[in-house]
Amino acid sequence: MAMERRTAWIAPIARATRCAAQSSAALVICVLIGLPLAFANEGESPNASPAEAQTASAATSTDELRRLLELLGVDESHFRSLMDGHPIQPDENEALLKLLFAVRRLPQLELRGTVPAALPLDLKHLPPKGSRVTIAGRLRAIASEQPPPELAERFELPRYYRCEVELADSQPAIVYVDVIPQAWQDNSLGDPRVGATGFLAKLASEAADTPTPVIVAPRLAWYPDSPLGELGMDFGLFDTLRQKHPLASDERFCFYEMLARLRAADNSQLASAATARLTPTTGGEIAKRLLQDPASESGKLVLLEGVARRAIRVEVTDPDIRRRYAIDHYFEVDLIFRDIRVRYEPAQANQEGAESPSSEEDTGPLVITCNLLELPPGMPTGDRISELVRVPAFFFKLWAFQSELAEQAGYHHLQFAPLFMARGAQWIEQPPAKSYTWVFSLLLVALLVAVVLVVWGMNRADRRRRVPAAVSGPQTTVDPAMLAAFDRGESTDAGR
Question: How far is Cα 110 from Cα 100, in angstroms, rounded to an integer?
Protein backbone atom coordinates (compact mmCIF):
# COMPACT_ATOMS: atom_id res chain seq x y z
CA MET A 1 0.00 0.00 0.00
CA ALA A 2 2.85 2.40 0.80
CA MET A 3 4.39 1.72 -2.59
CA GLU A 4 1.05 2.37 -4.29
CA ARG A 5 0.64 5.69 -2.48
CA ARG A 6 4.17 6.69 -3.43
CA THR A 7 3.52 5.79 -7.05
CA ALA A 8 0.28 7.77 -7.06
CA TRP A 9 2.13 10.73 -5.56
CA ILE A 10 5.04 10.58 -8.00
CA ALA A 11 2.93 10.17 -11.14
CA PRO A 12 1.55 13.73 -11.18
CA ILE A 13 5.06 15.10 -10.65
CA ALA A 14 6.34 13.02 -13.54
CA ARG A 15 3.55 14.27 -15.76
CA ALA A 16 4.25 17.85 -14.72
CA THR A 17 7.94 17.36 -15.46
CA ARG A 18 7.15 16.00 -18.90
CA CYS A 19 4.81 18.93 -19.58
CA ALA A 20 7.50 21.38 -18.50
CA ALA A 21 10.03 19.65 -20.74
CA GLN A 22 7.62 19.76 -23.66
CA SER A 23 6.95 23.46 -23.04
CA SER A 24 10.68 24.16 -22.95
CA ALA A 25 11.14 22.21 -26.15
CA ALA A 26 8.30 24.16 -27.75
CA LEU A 27 9.98 27.43 -26.76
CA VAL A 28 13.28 26.28 -28.22
CA ILE A 29 11.49 25.26 -31.40
CA CYS A 30 9.87 28.69 -31.62
CA VAL A 31 13.27 30.39 -31.41
CA LEU A 32 15.10 28.04 -33.74
CA ILE A 33 12.35 28.10 -36.35
CA GLY A 34 11.21 31.70 -36.04
CA LEU A 35 14.68 33.17 -36.57
CA PRO A 36 15.48 31.29 -39.79
CA LEU A 37 12.06 32.23 -41.14
CA ALA A 38 12.70 35.87 -40.35
CA PHE A 39 16.10 35.82 -42.04
CA ALA A 40 14.68 33.96 -45.02
CA ASN A 41 11.93 36.52 -45.48
CA GLU A 42 14.42 39.36 -45.05
CA GLY A 43 16.63 37.97 -47.79
CA GLU A 44 13.89 37.68 -50.41
CA SER A 45 14.43 39.83 -53.47
CA PRO A 46 11.68 42.40 -54.05
CA ASN A 47 12.08 41.93 -57.81
CA ALA A 48 11.46 38.17 -57.78
CA SER A 49 8.62 36.91 -59.99
CA PRO A 50 5.53 35.28 -58.38
CA ALA A 51 6.57 31.83 -59.65
CA GLU A 52 10.08 32.22 -58.26
CA ALA A 53 8.73 33.52 -54.97
CA GLN A 54 6.31 30.58 -54.71
CA THR A 55 9.09 28.09 -55.45
CA ALA A 56 11.39 29.72 -52.91
CA SER A 57 8.58 29.76 -50.34
CA ALA A 58 7.85 26.07 -50.89
CA ALA A 59 11.53 25.19 -50.55
CA THR A 60 11.82 27.24 -47.37
CA SER A 61 8.67 25.61 -45.98
CA THR A 62 10.02 22.12 -46.68
CA ASP A 63 13.34 22.91 -45.00
CA GLU A 64 11.63 24.40 -41.97
CA LEU A 65 9.30 21.40 -41.65
CA ARG A 66 12.27 19.06 -41.70
CA ARG A 67 13.97 21.03 -38.95
CA LEU A 68 10.73 21.15 -36.99
CA LEU A 69 10.23 17.39 -37.19
CA GLU A 70 13.84 16.75 -36.19
CA LEU A 71 13.40 18.94 -33.12
CA LEU A 72 10.26 16.95 -32.31
CA GLY A 73 12.22 13.71 -32.57
CA VAL A 74 11.28 12.58 -36.09
CA ASP A 75 14.09 12.48 -38.65
CA GLU A 76 14.59 11.08 -42.13
CA SER A 77 15.19 7.56 -40.82
CA HIS A 78 11.64 7.35 -39.52
CA PHE A 79 10.20 8.19 -42.94
CA ARG A 80 12.52 5.68 -44.64
CA SER A 81 11.14 2.98 -42.34
CA LEU A 82 7.60 3.79 -43.56
CA MET A 83 7.58 1.88 -46.84
CA ASP A 84 5.18 2.76 -49.66
CA GLY A 85 2.95 0.25 -51.41
CA HIS A 86 1.18 -1.36 -48.43
CA PRO A 87 -0.69 -0.39 -45.24
CA ILE A 88 1.13 0.15 -41.94
CA GLN A 89 2.96 -3.03 -40.95
CA PRO A 90 3.85 -4.15 -37.38
CA ASP A 91 7.51 -3.22 -37.88
CA GLU A 92 6.40 0.33 -38.79
CA ASN A 93 4.47 0.91 -35.55
CA GLU A 94 7.34 2.63 -33.78
CA ALA A 95 7.85 5.19 -36.53
CA LEU A 96 4.10 5.79 -36.74
CA LEU A 97 3.72 6.28 -32.99
CA LYS A 98 6.78 8.52 -32.92
CA LEU A 99 5.14 10.75 -35.50
CA LEU A 100 1.82 10.67 -33.62
CA PHE A 101 3.65 11.65 -30.43
CA ALA A 102 5.33 14.56 -32.22
CA VAL A 103 2.20 16.05 -33.82
CA ARG A 104 0.55 16.38 -30.39
CA ARG A 105 2.59 19.53 -29.87
CA LEU A 106 1.66 21.08 -33.20
CA PRO A 107 -1.45 23.04 -32.07
CA GLN A 108 0.57 25.07 -29.55
CA LEU A 109 3.35 25.68 -32.04
CA GLU A 110 0.86 26.57 -34.75
CA LEU A 111 -0.78 29.08 -32.42
CA ARG A 112 2.57 30.77 -31.95
CA GLY A 113 3.05 31.04 -35.70
CA THR A 114 6.14 28.83 -35.86
CA VAL A 115 4.72 26.12 -38.12
CA PRO A 116 4.73 26.66 -41.90
CA ALA A 117 1.29 26.73 -43.46
CA ALA A 118 -0.12 23.48 -44.82
CA LEU A 119 -1.03 23.05 -48.48
CA PRO A 120 -4.04 21.14 -49.87
CA LEU A 121 -3.05 17.63 -50.85
CA ASP A 122 -2.70 17.31 -54.63
CA LEU A 123 -3.13 13.64 -55.56
CA LYS A 124 -1.87 14.25 -59.09
CA HIS A 125 1.34 15.84 -57.84
CA LEU A 126 2.04 14.20 -54.51
CA PRO A 127 4.55 16.04 -52.32
CA PRO A 128 7.43 14.21 -50.62
CA LYS A 129 7.07 12.42 -47.30
CA GLY A 130 6.98 14.72 -44.31
CA SER A 131 5.12 17.47 -46.16
CA ARG A 132 2.37 19.23 -44.22
CA VAL A 133 -0.94 18.92 -46.05
CA THR A 134 -4.67 19.36 -45.55
CA ILE A 135 -7.43 17.03 -46.71
CA ALA A 136 -11.23 17.10 -46.69
CA GLY A 137 -13.80 14.42 -47.41
CA ARG A 138 -16.27 11.98 -45.87
CA LEU A 139 -15.49 9.53 -43.09
CA ARG A 140 -16.18 5.95 -44.18
CA ALA A 141 -14.81 3.85 -41.33
CA ILE A 142 -12.93 4.15 -38.08
CA ALA A 143 -11.00 1.54 -36.10
CA SER A 144 -9.40 1.69 -32.68
CA GLU A 145 -5.80 0.45 -32.53
CA GLN A 146 -3.76 -0.56 -29.48
CA PRO A 147 0.03 -0.36 -29.68
CA PRO A 148 2.29 -2.90 -27.98
CA PRO A 149 2.53 -2.27 -24.22
CA GLU A 150 6.16 -1.10 -24.32
CA LEU A 151 5.40 1.45 -27.08
CA ALA A 152 2.18 2.54 -25.39
CA GLU A 153 4.09 3.37 -22.19
CA ARG A 154 6.97 4.96 -24.04
CA PHE A 155 4.84 7.32 -26.10
CA GLU A 156 2.01 7.71 -23.54
CA LEU A 157 -0.42 6.49 -26.16
CA PRO A 158 -2.67 3.66 -24.96
CA ARG A 159 -4.92 3.94 -28.01
CA TYR A 160 -5.05 5.59 -31.41
CA TYR A 161 -7.45 5.52 -34.33
CA ARG A 162 -7.24 4.56 -37.97
CA CYS A 163 -9.75 6.57 -40.00
CA GLU A 164 -10.68 5.83 -43.60
CA VAL A 165 -11.64 8.99 -45.48
CA GLU A 166 -13.05 9.32 -48.97
CA LEU A 167 -11.63 12.36 -50.71
CA ALA A 168 -12.87 14.06 -53.85
CA ASP A 169 -13.35 11.83 -56.90
CA SER A 170 -13.75 8.83 -54.53
CA GLN A 171 -10.03 8.82 -53.74
CA PRO A 172 -9.29 6.96 -50.46
CA ALA A 173 -7.03 8.22 -47.69
CA ILE A 174 -6.03 6.90 -44.28
CA VAL A 175 -5.66 9.28 -41.34
CA TYR A 176 -4.10 8.28 -38.02
CA VAL A 177 -5.05 10.35 -34.97
CA ASP A 178 -5.08 9.83 -31.22
CA VAL A 179 -8.28 11.84 -30.58
CA ILE A 180 -11.71 11.51 -32.16
CA PRO A 181 -14.99 13.29 -31.25
CA GLN A 182 -16.88 11.70 -28.38
CA ALA A 183 -19.97 11.46 -30.56
CA TRP A 184 -18.18 8.78 -32.61
CA GLN A 185 -17.37 6.55 -29.67
CA ASP A 186 -20.59 4.56 -30.12
CA ASN A 187 -19.77 3.95 -33.82
CA SER A 188 -22.89 5.82 -34.96
CA LEU A 189 -20.94 7.66 -37.63
CA GLY A 190 -23.43 8.25 -40.39
CA ASP A 191 -21.68 10.08 -43.22
CA PRO A 192 -19.87 12.98 -41.53
CA ARG A 193 -17.81 15.56 -43.33
CA VAL A 194 -14.27 15.61 -41.97
CA GLY A 195 -10.94 17.25 -42.51
CA ALA A 196 -7.40 16.98 -41.22
CA THR A 197 -4.12 18.87 -41.25
CA GLY A 198 -1.07 16.69 -40.75
CA PHE A 199 2.04 15.15 -42.24
CA LEU A 200 2.17 12.85 -45.23
CA ALA A 201 3.72 9.66 -43.85
CA LYS A 202 3.55 7.25 -46.82
CA LEU A 203 1.37 5.80 -49.58
CA ALA A 204 -0.63 2.71 -48.66
CA SER A 205 -1.02 1.92 -52.37
CA GLU A 206 1.20 2.73 -55.31
CA ALA A 207 -1.60 2.40 -57.85
CA ALA A 208 -1.74 5.44 -60.08
CA ASP A 209 -5.52 5.74 -59.84
CA THR A 210 -5.74 5.20 -56.04
CA PRO A 211 -2.49 6.21 -54.34
CA THR A 212 -4.11 6.13 -50.83
CA PRO A 213 -2.04 8.64 -48.87
CA VAL A 214 -1.44 8.00 -45.16
CA ILE A 215 -1.72 11.16 -43.04
CA VAL A 216 -0.70 11.52 -39.39
CA ALA A 217 -2.57 14.39 -37.72
CA PRO A 218 -3.34 15.64 -34.20
CA ARG A 219 -7.08 15.28 -34.72
CA LEU A 220 -9.76 14.64 -37.31
CA ALA A 221 -12.00 17.68 -37.62
CA TRP A 222 -15.76 17.08 -37.81
CA TYR A 223 -18.06 19.40 -39.78
CA PRO A 224 -21.71 18.36 -39.30
CA ASP A 225 -24.35 19.23 -41.86
CA SER A 226 -25.63 22.17 -39.81
CA PRO A 227 -25.44 25.97 -40.07
CA LEU A 228 -22.34 26.10 -37.87
CA GLY A 229 -20.77 23.08 -39.56
CA GLU A 230 -21.28 24.78 -42.92
CA LEU A 231 -19.22 27.68 -41.59
CA GLY A 232 -16.30 25.29 -41.01
CA MET A 233 -16.53 24.85 -37.24
CA ASP A 234 -14.91 21.66 -35.91
CA PHE A 235 -17.51 20.19 -33.54
CA GLY A 236 -14.88 17.92 -32.01
CA LEU A 237 -13.51 20.99 -30.20
CA PHE A 238 -16.68 21.10 -28.09
CA ASP A 239 -15.38 18.00 -26.29
CA THR A 240 -12.76 20.22 -24.62
CA LEU A 241 -15.43 22.30 -22.85
CA ARG A 242 -16.25 21.83 -19.17
CA GLN A 243 -19.93 22.46 -18.60
CA LYS A 244 -21.08 24.32 -15.45
CA HIS A 245 -17.61 25.79 -14.95
CA PRO A 246 -16.12 29.22 -15.59
CA LEU A 247 -14.24 29.68 -18.83
CA ALA A 248 -10.82 28.01 -18.67
CA SER A 249 -7.62 28.67 -20.60
CA ASP A 250 -7.72 25.28 -22.33
CA GLU A 251 -11.10 26.22 -23.85
CA ARG A 252 -9.75 29.24 -25.71
CA PHE A 253 -9.04 27.26 -28.90
CA CYS A 254 -12.70 26.35 -29.24
CA PHE A 255 -13.82 29.82 -28.13
CA TYR A 256 -11.80 31.82 -30.64
CA GLU A 257 -12.12 29.24 -33.42
CA MET A 258 -15.88 29.62 -33.16
CA LEU A 259 -15.68 33.42 -33.16
CA ALA A 260 -13.38 33.34 -36.18
CA ARG A 261 -15.72 31.05 -38.12
CA LEU A 262 -18.64 33.41 -37.47
CA ARG A 263 -17.01 36.08 -39.62
CA ALA A 264 -18.52 34.40 -42.68
CA ALA A 265 -22.00 34.20 -41.13
CA ASP A 266 -24.97 36.04 -42.61
CA ASN A 267 -27.23 37.18 -39.78
CA SER A 268 -30.35 37.44 -41.93
CA GLN A 269 -29.90 33.90 -43.24
CA LEU A 270 -29.22 32.56 -39.76
CA ALA A 271 -32.32 34.29 -38.40
CA SER A 272 -34.40 32.59 -41.11
CA ALA A 273 -32.77 29.21 -40.45
CA ALA A 274 -33.27 29.32 -36.67
CA THR A 275 -36.01 26.90 -35.58
CA ALA A 276 -35.60 27.54 -31.84
CA ARG A 277 -36.65 30.93 -30.47
CA LEU A 278 -36.03 32.22 -26.98
CA THR A 279 -37.85 35.35 -25.77
CA PRO A 280 -38.59 36.80 -22.30
CA THR A 281 -41.99 35.07 -22.25
CA THR A 282 -41.38 31.95 -24.35
CA GLY A 283 -38.64 29.37 -24.65
CA GLY A 284 -38.90 27.64 -21.29
CA GLU A 285 -38.32 24.23 -22.86
CA ILE A 286 -35.25 25.49 -24.70
CA ALA A 287 -33.84 26.97 -21.51
CA LYS A 288 -34.52 23.69 -19.71
CA ARG A 289 -32.47 21.74 -22.27
CA LEU A 290 -29.65 24.26 -22.09
CA LEU A 291 -29.52 23.95 -18.31
CA GLN A 292 -29.99 20.19 -17.98
CA ASP A 293 -28.09 18.78 -20.96
CA PRO A 294 -25.81 21.52 -22.27
CA ALA A 295 -23.25 19.20 -23.90
CA SER A 296 -25.79 17.96 -26.45
CA GLU A 297 -26.85 21.53 -27.31
CA SER A 298 -23.42 22.94 -28.18
CA GLY A 299 -23.31 24.37 -31.68
CA LYS A 300 -27.08 24.61 -32.10
CA LEU A 301 -28.68 27.75 -33.51
CA VAL A 302 -31.14 29.74 -31.38
CA LEU A 303 -32.84 33.05 -32.15
CA LEU A 304 -32.57 35.23 -29.04
CA GLU A 305 -35.01 38.10 -28.61
CA GLY A 306 -34.91 40.26 -25.53
CA VAL A 307 -33.71 43.40 -23.82
CA ALA A 308 -29.97 43.77 -23.48
CA ARG A 309 -29.13 45.06 -20.02
CA ARG A 310 -25.36 45.13 -20.45
CA ALA A 311 -23.02 45.42 -23.44
CA ILE A 312 -19.27 45.91 -23.01
CA ARG A 313 -16.25 45.66 -25.27
CA VAL A 314 -13.69 43.00 -24.31
CA GLU A 315 -10.12 43.49 -25.49
CA VAL A 316 -8.11 40.42 -26.55
CA THR A 317 -4.64 40.83 -25.09
CA ASP A 318 -3.12 37.46 -25.97
CA PRO A 319 -0.70 38.13 -28.86
CA ASP A 320 -0.93 34.52 -30.08
CA ILE A 321 -4.70 34.72 -30.37
CA ARG A 322 -4.55 38.10 -32.08
CA ARG A 323 -2.04 36.79 -34.63
CA ARG A 324 -3.67 33.44 -35.23
CA TYR A 325 -7.32 34.51 -35.45
CA ALA A 326 -6.96 38.25 -36.23
CA ILE A 327 -9.35 39.07 -33.37
CA ASP A 328 -8.44 41.99 -31.13
CA HIS A 329 -11.81 42.47 -29.42
CA TYR A 330 -15.37 41.22 -29.11
CA PHE A 331 -18.51 42.35 -27.29
CA GLU A 332 -20.17 40.68 -24.31
CA VAL A 333 -23.93 41.26 -24.06
CA ASP A 334 -26.21 40.11 -21.25
CA LEU A 335 -29.93 39.54 -21.72
CA ILE A 336 -32.14 38.91 -18.68
CA PHE A 337 -35.30 36.78 -18.92
CA ARG A 338 -37.15 37.45 -15.69
CA ASP A 339 -40.06 35.12 -16.45
CA ILE A 340 -37.67 32.12 -16.53
CA ARG A 341 -36.33 31.40 -13.04
CA VAL A 342 -33.27 29.29 -12.23
CA ARG A 343 -31.87 28.09 -8.93
CA TYR A 344 -28.38 28.73 -7.69
CA GLU A 345 -26.18 25.74 -6.94
CA PRO A 346 -23.28 25.48 -4.48
CA ALA A 347 -19.89 26.27 -5.96
CA GLN A 348 -17.65 23.21 -5.83
CA ALA A 349 -14.97 25.16 -4.01
CA ASN A 350 -17.46 26.15 -1.30
CA GLN A 351 -19.64 23.08 -1.04
CA GLU A 352 -18.28 22.11 2.35
CA GLY A 353 -20.42 23.74 4.99
CA ALA A 354 -22.48 25.73 2.49
CA GLU A 355 -26.23 25.78 2.80
CA SER A 356 -28.25 24.83 -0.22
CA PRO A 357 -30.97 27.25 -1.32
CA SER A 358 -34.42 25.85 -0.82
CA SER A 359 -36.92 28.68 -1.24
CA GLU A 360 -38.20 30.72 -4.13
CA GLU A 361 -36.19 33.68 -2.83
CA ASP A 362 -33.00 31.77 -3.70
CA THR A 363 -33.81 31.74 -7.40
CA GLY A 364 -32.96 34.34 -9.98
CA PRO A 365 -33.86 35.26 -13.53
CA LEU A 366 -32.28 33.42 -16.42
CA VAL A 367 -29.30 35.36 -17.70
CA ILE A 368 -28.19 34.82 -21.29
CA THR A 369 -24.64 35.89 -22.16
CA CYS A 370 -23.81 36.36 -25.81
CA ASN A 371 -20.38 37.15 -27.26
CA LEU A 372 -20.53 39.01 -30.58
CA LEU A 373 -17.91 40.05 -33.08
CA GLU A 374 -19.66 43.36 -33.65
CA LEU A 375 -22.54 45.51 -32.45
CA PRO A 376 -24.96 47.47 -34.61
CA PRO A 377 -23.73 51.01 -35.34
CA GLY A 378 -24.95 53.47 -32.75
CA MET A 379 -26.15 50.90 -30.23
CA PRO A 380 -25.45 52.10 -26.68
CA THR A 381 -22.94 50.21 -24.56
CA GLY A 382 -22.30 50.04 -20.84
CA ASP A 383 -23.29 48.20 -17.68
CA ARG A 384 -26.77 49.73 -17.50
CA ILE A 385 -28.60 49.80 -20.79
CA SER A 386 -32.04 48.75 -21.95
CA GLU A 387 -32.04 47.98 -25.67
CA LEU A 388 -34.23 45.53 -27.57
CA VAL A 389 -32.12 43.18 -29.71
CA ARG A 390 -32.62 40.12 -31.90
CA VAL A 391 -29.59 37.80 -32.16
CA PRO A 392 -29.22 34.58 -34.20
CA ALA A 393 -26.63 32.88 -32.00
CA PHE A 394 -25.00 29.48 -31.50
CA PHE A 395 -24.90 27.86 -28.07
CA PHE A 396 -21.35 27.48 -26.74
CA LYS A 397 -21.55 26.11 -23.20
CA LEU A 398 -23.23 26.48 -19.82
CA TRP A 399 -20.80 28.58 -17.87
CA ALA A 400 -20.82 29.50 -14.20
CA PHE A 401 -20.38 32.82 -12.44
CA GLN A 402 -20.93 34.29 -8.99
CA SER A 403 -24.37 35.86 -8.81
CA GLU A 404 -24.66 39.21 -7.08
CA LEU A 405 -28.19 38.35 -5.95
CA ALA A 406 -27.03 35.15 -4.27
CA GLU A 407 -24.04 36.91 -2.73
CA GLN A 408 -26.27 39.63 -1.31
CA ALA A 409 -28.49 36.91 0.15
CA GLY A 410 -25.47 35.44 1.95
CA TYR A 411 -24.95 32.40 -0.27
CA HIS A 412 -21.67 31.50 -1.91
CA HIS A 413 -23.20 29.92 -4.96
CA LEU A 414 -22.57 29.87 -8.66
CA GLN A 415 -25.28 30.77 -11.11
CA PHE A 416 -25.34 29.05 -14.48
CA ALA A 417 -25.85 31.05 -17.64
CA PRO A 418 -26.10 29.77 -21.21
CA LEU A 419 -23.22 31.27 -23.19
CA PHE A 420 -23.85 31.98 -26.87
CA MET A 421 -21.68 33.18 -29.76
CA ALA A 422 -22.82 35.32 -32.68
CA ARG A 423 -21.48 37.54 -35.38
CA GLY A 424 -23.81 40.47 -34.75
CA ALA A 425 -27.22 41.56 -33.55
CA GLN A 426 -30.22 43.40 -34.90
CA TRP A 427 -30.87 46.48 -32.80
CA ILE A 428 -34.58 47.28 -32.69
CA GLU A 429 -34.65 50.97 -31.86
CA GLN A 430 -37.70 51.96 -29.85
CA PRO A 431 -39.44 55.30 -30.55
CA PRO A 432 -38.92 57.82 -27.77
CA ALA A 433 -41.52 57.53 -25.06
CA LYS A 434 -44.38 60.05 -25.45
CA SER A 435 -44.03 62.83 -22.93
CA TYR A 436 -47.09 64.50 -21.45
CA THR A 437 -45.14 66.99 -19.37
CA TRP A 438 -46.33 69.90 -21.49
CA VAL A 439 -49.96 68.95 -20.82
CA PHE A 440 -49.44 68.92 -17.08
CA SER A 441 -47.48 72.16 -17.29
CA LEU A 442 -50.30 73.81 -19.26
CA LEU A 443 -52.89 72.60 -16.76
CA LEU A 444 -50.81 73.89 -13.88
CA VAL A 445 -50.42 77.31 -15.52
CA ALA A 446 -54.18 77.44 -16.22
CA LEU A 447 -54.91 76.54 -12.60
CA LEU A 448 -52.58 79.23 -11.33
CA VAL A 449 -54.13 81.82 -13.65
CA ALA A 450 -57.61 80.83 -12.47
CA VAL A 451 -56.60 81.15 -8.83
CA VAL A 452 -55.07 84.56 -9.50
CA LEU A 453 -58.21 85.72 -11.32
CA VAL A 454 -60.48 84.50 -8.54
CA VAL A 455 -58.43 86.23 -5.86
CA TRP A 456 -58.23 89.41 -7.94
CA GLY A 457 -62.02 89.39 -8.51
CA MET A 458 -62.77 88.89 -4.83
CA ASN A 459 -60.46 91.75 -3.84
CA ARG A 460 -62.03 94.08 -6.41
CA ALA A 461 -65.57 93.35 -5.21
CA ASP A 462 -64.55 94.01 -1.64
CA ARG A 463 -63.05 97.39 -2.59
CA ARG A 464 -66.24 98.38 -4.40
CA ARG A 465 -68.26 97.76 -1.22
CA ARG A 466 -65.97 99.89 0.97
CA VAL A 467 -65.68 103.01 -1.26
CA PRO A 468 -69.38 104.35 -0.97
CA ALA A 469 -69.31 104.03 2.83
CA ALA A 470 -66.16 106.09 3.07
CA VAL A 471 -67.58 108.95 0.88
CA SER A 472 -71.03 109.39 2.64
CA GLY A 473 -69.76 109.12 6.21
CA PRO A 474 -71.84 107.94 9.19
CA GLN A 475 -75.66 108.96 9.26
CA THR A 476 -77.00 110.34 12.64
CA THR A 477 -80.69 110.80 13.53
CA VAL A 478 -81.51 113.93 15.89
CA ASP A 479 -84.68 114.19 18.03
CA PRO A 480 -86.52 117.55 17.31
CA ALA A 481 -87.72 117.86 20.94
CA MET A 482 -84.15 117.68 22.09
CA LEU A 483 -83.21 120.59 19.76
CA ALA A 484 -86.12 122.73 21.06
CA ALA A 485 -85.12 122.15 24.66
CA PHE A 486 -81.55 123.04 23.79
CA ASP A 487 -82.66 126.29 22.27
CA ARG A 488 -84.66 127.20 25.45
CA GLY A 489 -81.61 126.58 27.56
CA GLU A 490 -83.01 123.53 29.18
CA SER A 491 -80.70 120.74 30.09
CA THR A 492 -81.09 117.59 28.17
CA ASP A 493 -80.41 115.62 31.35
CA ALA A 494 -83.53 116.90 33.12
CA GLY A 495 -85.81 114.37 34.39
CA ARG A 496 -83.12 111.76 34.42
Answer: 16
